[in-house]
Amino acid sequence: MNVPGLLIVGTDTGVGKTYVTALLIRELRRLGIRVGAYKPACSGREMTDRGEPCWPDVDVLVKALEEAGFDRCVALGDRVCPQRFAAAAAPPVAARLEGRHVDRHTLDEGLKYWPTVSEFVLVEGIGGLLCPVTETETIADLAVAWDLPLLIVARAGLGTINHTLLTIEGAQQRGLTVKGVLLNETEPVTDDLSAPFNATEIARHTNASIWGVLPYQANDWSFIRLHGEAINLRHLLM
Q1: N or C: less crowded end of the chain, CB within 10 Å?
Q2: HEC string for 11-68
Q3: Average pLDDT, stretch 103-115?
Q4: What average pLDDT does the segment 75-79 reach?
C-alpha cells in the first residue's frame, strides 16, 4: 500500500505506544499536517461507569483526532479500530475466545480509508513487533505488507537496551526502515541508575536514530530531548 505514514511499535506491551501516538497526532496538527490514526485491532475491553464496553486505547486516539479537527459523527471509533475483542490477549487469541477471527481484508480496508482524509497516517501496533495480529501474521508482517517505516517506543528504564536492540534487529532483518527510537518513562524515575545512560548505550550498538527520552507524563512533544536539543519532527518524518 502506498500510505504516507509511520507505524508505532513497542518493545513490549504497556510501553506507552498509545500515549506517544496521541502526542504525535497533536504535534503534527500543530505543524499544519492533517493526520489520521489507525489501530488495526485492539484487545482488552473495559466497562464504563454506565456499563458500556470501551477500549481505552481507541478512546485516547479518538479524543486526539477530535482535538485535531475530526468529527465524531463519522463513526470515528470504528474508523480508528475496525476489530475489537474483549480478552486482554493477542488479537487472534482474543478472537478465538469469542468464536471469531481477525479478518485480514478488514485490516487492509480500514487502513485504505485514512489517506483519503489525511496527509499522514499514524498506525499504532499491538504489543511488540512480533506480536501475532492474525492467525498467520505478526505486526512486523503488516509493516512489511503496508510498507510503513517504524517508530519504536521503548521503556526508559532497566532492561530496555536488550529489548530495544532485539526489536531494531528484527525490524532491519525484515527490510523495515526504523525512523527512530523513543524511550518513554512509563513511571517516575526514582533509583534506576541505568535511566540516564540507556539512550546513549542503545545508540552505541545500532545505526537507528535515537529520538530521545519522553519524561513521565509529559503532555507536549517539546519535552523530548536528546543531548539537550529539541526534536525537529517534520524533518524526521518527511
Answers
A1: C
A2: CCCCCCHHHHHHHHHHHHHHCCCCEEEECCCEECCEECCCCCEECHHHHHHHHHHHHC
A3: 96
A4: 92
Instruction: Of 236, 237, 229, give the one whose Cα is nearest residue 213.
Output: 229
pLDDT tens digits along 143-172: 999 999 999 999 999 999 999 999 999 999
**pLDDT band for position 228 (cuts 50, 70, 90):** very low
Between CA 186 and CA 189 the distance in angstroms is 9
39 is catalytic: yes
Q: Is residue 236 a contact partner of residue 180, using CB atoms and an 8 Å limit?
A: yes
Of the residues 39, 63, 112, 179, only one is catalytic, namely 39
pTM, 2 dp? 0.93
Label residue 73 by pLDDT band (50, 70, 90).
Answer: low
- Domains of the chain (ranges plus CATH)? 5-237 (3.40.50.300)
